[in-house]
Amino acid sequence: MGEIVNLRRARKARAKADAAAEAARNRALHGRGKAAKADAEAEAARRRLRDRTLDAGRIARDDEPS
């Protein structure tokens, strides 16, 4: 005689596995999370500020093209 299967539990387990697979596809498709995006944006802002500060202190020379 075969194994007795509770159909309700089997459906729920299959739905859970399908949802997990779809979540994995979406993570791969849409990339980074909110925290990673915020970190990258903060780093870019620091880089822009650093570049602006360095450019502001630059001494222009007459023989240097603009």
Automatic annotation (TrEMBL):
Basic and acidic residues: compositionally biased ranges: 36-66
Annotated segments matching region Disordered: 18-66
InterPro entries noted in UniProt: DUF4169 (IPR025227)
Superkingdom, natural source: Bacteria
Pfam family, one: DUF4169
The name this protein goes by in its record: DUF4169 family protein
Organism the protein comes from: Elioraea tepida
